[in-house]
């Protein structure tokens, strides 16, 4: 389908107006939550919203570069000392995803008799995994699952976490690690150009290697690598990170549609309830980790929450709740989930992976 510029421009203008309203109302993450809710609601209502994928890539690129600038040598040493807590969080996320998937299957399998048993098992399993939405949908397709339900599950999970957690953080009064290096505020345009070029090469390399989420992981790794070695080229202008949040929000919001709600309403209700339950359980797990690590509860809640890397790291950045720790927890969890989820499925459900005749 050809790209229709007027739909893209109209969607961006709607998102910008929503962001402006949220800035006026002083809501948390106005450049993320306003555009996300506005485009999601408009899409569900049947409005001709449209996203241009390169804009979403641009948003991820900018945010990834900004996050990497927090990893000074001192901060890197702190994060490295928490390797055992990150490992525990990975085990927790895998176990919670398995439990969520099993619960989705138990609640929905009998009510969705039109879906074959192996397909339903794969659908529930990959819908429950706490990982990248696009990657889990691709794995689900290979397992002959209902990819529409898997994508809907992850989209709704991200929406709920992105909206509820920042509001909870702001209104709870919790404080995190204020790791805000002065370099972030110093924008030097020659250095900025060099930083943009280096991180763009990182994205290109990750894309050529076929790695997941190249426009986020590539720039993040390059920006982190430079900062860890004491190379500070430039900070990122605030207006640019605000715009990046808006672009990421639009790319999430347009995934919803009128058909999204009508496809399987009972499935979506169970996903919503399960997601809220996971938020509560992850908060409890984070509370236990505070006693072992001494880190602020707010930082660990964001690090272990069932949201996405970009969304939770943006929350930590805007509310100054410990960006490097949150990013390290989320990145390591995503890598582990992407590596382990498919082998775990084959090991746990060998009968579901057998070819049908």
What is the N-to-C order of secondary-structure elements (H for helix, E for strand)?
HHHHHHHHHHHHHHHH
Beta fraction of the residues? under 5%
- Taking pLDDT < 50 over at least 5 consecutive residues as the criterion, the unreliable ranges are none
- Separate helix tally: 16
Query: How many domains comprise the coordinates?
Result: 1
Overall mean pLDDT: 86
Question: Would you report the number of β strands?
Answer: 0
Task: Please tell me what the overall shape is.
Answer: globular
Distance between the termini: 36 Å
Main β-sheet: number of strands, strand sense, barrel status?
none
Structural class: mainly alpha
Helical proportion, percent range: over 70%
Architecture blueprint of SSEs:
Blueprint: H1 5-25, H2 30-44, H3 53-68, H4 73-80, H5 83-108, H6 117-128, H7 133-142, H8 147-172, H9 189-208, H10 214-228, H11 238-253, H12 258-263, H13 265-293, H14 297-304, H15 309-319, H16 323-348
